[in-house]
Amino acid sequence: MAVQQEIKSQLAKLLATENIVVEHKNVETAQFNVDTRVLILPLWEKASNYVYDMLVGHEVGHALFTPNVDPPKDIPHNFLNVCEDARIEKLMKRKYLGIAKSFYRGYNEMHDNDFFELDGEDIDTLNLADRANLHFKIGSFLPIPFSDSEKEIITLIQNAETFTDTIAAAEALYNFCKQEQESKEQISQTTEGISSEISPESDGGDSLHSGNSDTDSTGDSDSSVSNSHSDDSLEGGNSDTDTSSRGSDNGDSLEPEVQTADTLFGKIKDLTGGEYSVENVYVEVPKVNLDSVVVSNKIVHEIADKHYKLEDERYMEAVKSRGEVPEGLEHLYPKTTFEVPDSDFIKFKRDAQKEVSYLVKEFECRKSASAYARASTSRTGVLDTRNLHTYKFNEDLFKKITVLPDGKNHGLIFILDWSGSMSRVLEDTLKQLYNLIWFCKKVQIPFDVYAFSSEFRNRYDTQYQMSHYDRMITEKVQHCERKEGFLHVDSDFNLLHFFSSDSNAKELEKQMITIWRTAHAFGRRVAYQYPLELCLSGTPLNETLVTLHQLIPQFQEKTGAEKVQCIILTDGEGSQLPYNKMVNRHWEDDEFLGCVNCHGGRSFLRDRKLGRTYNLKYAYRDFTDALLHHLQDKFPSTNFIGIRVLEGRDARYFIGHYHYDNDKLMSEWKKNKSCTITNSGYNAYFAISSNALAQDTEFDVDDDATKAQIKRAFVKSLKTKKLNKKVLGEFIELVA
To answer: What are phi and psi of 281, to 5 degrees?
Structure first.
């Protein structure tokens, strides 16, 4: 039913002709706040599709046409609602011709299921308010009798166009019913007096009294009144001011009632699942404080540089003190501290230039093609003398000007997964990242590279005393103001600012070597220890996606980028985010603001400005996809690109999650060691084999290699280059 509820929410928004916020909650009646524009609908889990549509249309009618004013105190609420229901449903049918069918079928089903409890009831004995209520709701299926004087009031209700007209009609209806009730009471009192004079001790008077159904219902008015303080579902308009009762609060027997309204309210209430229904949860994205979340580029590399300086000094002292290296073990004892990772970096940088050049070429070609595709041609009004000889068969003899519109400024934000599971593929992932960084530098596209971590704060060494950041770390400053109903971002989460286009070429290369050394040290026997502050952590991917709501605008403001590409390089998904909620534990007296997990399928991310909701499902991937879809809607000029580095054994499981032709994608994966998924939360999700990335693209064989060995090396080199060019080509197509 949760899916249906969200469909009905969209229906409500369409009918309201604005992005109102629609929530389904465990409430008895619908409520609409005209200030916040939030429409709360009950969980009508037992309602049919026709009845659900009718109820939604009715409540939207109140949201559109019932003003936020205090109702007259001298007119009981139910009488006003009878008249207002008729008016707003008339206006809804006038505004949306097709909704008349929903009202017709919905009320027909209600009548068939005896929602008004008319089975065996003599309609003639009902007062005018009840009959008017039946007339405007189920009059198409049940003929309702009216006298000539009553028809005047019915016409008054029927012709009401404004809320002022509704008040006038309700006042006339109420006065008529009150006079009718007073007349009946006088007759009843006279009859009782005569009976008591004849036989004061007999029961005959009770039998006469019980024959009056109206009098019986008024005697039981207290229970009816107590359950109807927020009666708005087909009985009322303004939920915010709905505090009056259906009759007299003092139980005066002369006060008329609308029994059919109370009955309908009870039946509609029964359509909900009751107190045991699982209520939908609506959460929002908090505003994150970037000053506390982001560890600046300066701090990251000051920590790393200081650490590696100490490591270099320590190792070189050990080199001086050790004796001869055993023959055959020279590779285990490098001459310098960072000999192995630095030489690997230099070799990779040299080999990567061909890939980078390919990226630049593809980008420039696609950018030019896109510009010419948007080109416009206009006539100048000046004759083109070269075409004068064609005047007999050509009417276009004027010079033309082709205008190429200016392209948008580009910018790239890279998010690197710095979690423990990345240790096996981190170096290969860095290769892809570095290719893209060098590409950005060559085409002068501004960029920022961040790595998400949940360990930096825990590992941070206070001896560094870095400006205000120590205070933030030691005090565990919250990244955002904690509010009920907002997603919670843990204080241990950080974004490490690894690289920036603001750095000059020399500084950038030094920083890239530093991070390369760090990645190289994970899971390997090396001559140095990596900085503990940069150790691998959990996977706060979802926290990062929440932070992008502030990070992207900041990046655009800093760089002037109009078109932003946000590339996330990861090997998995993050855990679901909890949300802040007031919690009352049974052993404590006071509530406190705690964190509660989102219920799969019943939790929805809500954006009030966009007027949209996103289902936060139970699976990790689905939760992340919902956050990504929200980002796409919030930032339509930003492409969100995922690069997923996979080991071969994980490919089928990963691909199988998405609703693709698995066999087709697996065939593509086996052939190219890569595939592209387009139905995830990303604009494009590239899956790349970690083994393929690790292969060297250079054609390199030994001097004494056989023909077969040369052939295999050549084919292997071509395949690797083909993979890289395919993935990078698709990426560039998105960027350009």
So the answer is: -115, 130
H-helix segments, 139-162? 148-158
**For the chain, percent of residues with pLDDT exceeding 70:** 72
All CATH 3.40.50.410 domain ranges of the chain, comma separated, are: 290-373+381-392+406-735
- Centre a 10 Å sphere on the Cβ of residue 672 and count the other Cβ atoms it contains: 17
The region, left, alpha or beta by phi > 0 then psi within -120 to 50, assigned to residue 37 is left
* Cα-based angle 29, 64, 233 (whole degrees, multiple of 5): 15
Yes or no: say if 257 and 247 are a contact pair by the CB < 8 Å rule.
yes
Backbone angles phi, psi at 517, to 5 degrees: -60, -45
> What pLDDT was estimated at residue 229?
33
- pLDDT score for 552: 97
- pLDDT value of position 318: 87
Rounded to an integer, what distance in angstroms lies between the CA atom of residue 424 and that of residue 691? 10
Of the pLDDT bands very low, low, confident and very high (cuts 50, 70, 90), residue 492 is confident
Q: Say which residues have a Cβ less than 8 Å from residue 114's Cβ, sequence separation at least 6.
A: none
pLDDT of residue 272: 79
Nearest residue to 535 via CA among 513, 518, 548: 518
Nearest 5°: phi and psi at 605?
A: -80, 130
Query: Which SS3 state, helix, strand or coil, does residue 604 take?
Result: strand
Whether 83 shows a pLDDT value over 80: the answer reads yes
Q: pLDDT tens-digit profile of 597-620?
A: 887 778 889 888 887 888 888 778
Residue 448 pairs in a beta bridge with 413, 500
pLDDT, position 465: 45
Task: Collect all residues with Cβ–Cβ distance below 8 Å to 437 and sequence separation of at least 6.
Answer: 414, 447, 449, 499, 508, 512
Instruction: Using DSSP, state whether 169 is helix, strand or coil.
Output: helix
Q: Which whole number is the average pLDDT over 612-635? A: 89
* Average pLDDT value for residue range 486-511: 94
Bridge partner list, 412: 447, 565
Contact (CB, 8 A) for 687 and 675: yes
Look at residues 432, 575, 556, 607 and name the one whose alpha carbon lies nearest to residue 38. 607
Q: Which residues pair with 570 in a beta bridge?
A: 644
- Identify the three-state secondary structure at position 22: strand
Which residue type is seen at 220? D
Question: Counting Cβ atoms within 10 Å, is residue 119 exposed (0-12), middle (13-18) or buried (19+)?
Answer: exposed
Helix (H) or strand (E) holding 87: helix 77-95
What is the 8-class DSSP label of residue 119?
Answer: T
| pTM, 2 dp | 0.71
Q: Are 489 and 546 in contact (CB under 8 A)?
A: yes
Q: Which of 188-197, 241-250, 425-434 has the lowest mean pLDDT?
A: 241-250
In this structure, how many other beta carbons lie within 10 angstroms of the beta carbon of residue 316?
Answer: 14
Asked if 440 and 412 count as a contact pair (C-beta separation under 8 A), the reply is yes
Q: 10 Å Cβ neighbour count for 123?
A: 14
Cα-to-chain-centroid distance, residue 259: 43
- Checking if the pLDDT of 471 tops 60, the result is no
Q: Which residues pair with 606 in a beta bridge?
A: 613
Buried b (16+ CB within 10 A) or exposed e, 372-409: eeeeeeeeeeeeeeeeeeeeeeeeebeeeeeeeeeeee
- Cα–Cα distance for residue pair 152/163, rounded to 1 Å: 19
CATH 3.40.50.410, domain 290-373+381-392+406-735, yes or no: yes
